Amino acid sequence: MGYFKESISGAGNVNALHLAVSDDGREWTPLNDNNAILPPTAGTKGIRDPFLFRLNDGSWVALATDIAAGGSFTKPNPNIHVWTSPDLVNWSADRLLKVNGTNPNAYSWAPAVHWDPVRQAYGITFTTVPQGASYSVIDVAYTTDFVTATDPAVYYDAGHGVIDSHVVTGVNGSNYLYYKDNATGRLAGARSTSVEPGSFTKYTDGVAENRCTEAPTLVKSLTAPSTWMLWGDTYCPNAKFDLWQGDLVSGTWTKAGRQTYTAPLNAKHNTVQPITAADRDRLLARYGGTSWNLLKSYNFPGRYVRHASFAGKISELPFDPYQDAQWRLRPGLSDSTGVSFESVNFPGYYMKQENFEIKVVRDDGTAAFATDATFHRVAGLDGTWSSFRSARFPTRYLRHSSFALRIDEISTGTGRADATFDIVQ
Q: Taking the model in full, what pTM does it have?
């Protein structure tokens, strides 16, 4: 997965390309501690809306919108960012590619790539407003080398504003274009038997979590060839993804529960492409994963364990400061077979029980503190994930109650669900 980052307050905004890997396309490990892999150096020195694509020779290209952090979305800009790589770890220098030179008064948003077998060239679709038009369309420019490109042509015009394209080719003899339909607020789908500009016809109204849903990303399942996933970004609240699973051909989609996927923290406008096990291993060897984890609630899977005013609770992400939800899992302070949870933004502070309530407190070095801050990870009481048994009170487990964290004896189905968590990255 490629993405850039934003947070609610803007404190976590990073307009640069980040990468994450996954074995199932649902649970993601951010690389480089969720720091940037490719900081932009050309143009505005900022990016949005990255797109990754494996080229016909097996090498890679990364494209992105040229907008700096805090920059104007609508400022005219004919260029997009381009990086190329033979292996996802050795990258070219950042450069600009002009794709929209004939529209001097328009922006060039959200580039995406597909192969055009007739032209023997790569089509770069992007959002813009053509000269003389009053609404946005999907345009296309063609390139063979990602150094120069043709003048743009209108690729898809819905008669009203559309943004954010993803073209998938060669599925049961048809090609598919998904986009954000500004009139309906949904991620809609069009299809064609060719990839010619103007040939696509809408075939499904698609999906949306709300009218802020945008940035459709189509991903074919690696294990079930007829199953597709459709990711959608949202900006209300910002930095939150929704996921649907279904049949691309019929345009039938079912919302996936948040228990079944976890996107990287603060990720925006993702791009997903299949990679090999060798690619994954090479990326992890070069960049590493994360040095911290998040704890995801089982029965409120949009909520994560955090501290607020040094009290433990679960809150719905996104929130700021987002670092309140990041924990370093240390060997148990009183028993190395257990685990202790150290705060990332308050190093040396740990989750501990005080009168059965969870507080985040500086380690005072005492044996009593160590025992109160140690838990034993066991199989999830609700039959999945993990639960954490108190070292101080071995019949009590970490759980949330009215979203506050505490340790309790567990005897009900609700309690078992409250006491079950997933350790994610």
A: 0.96
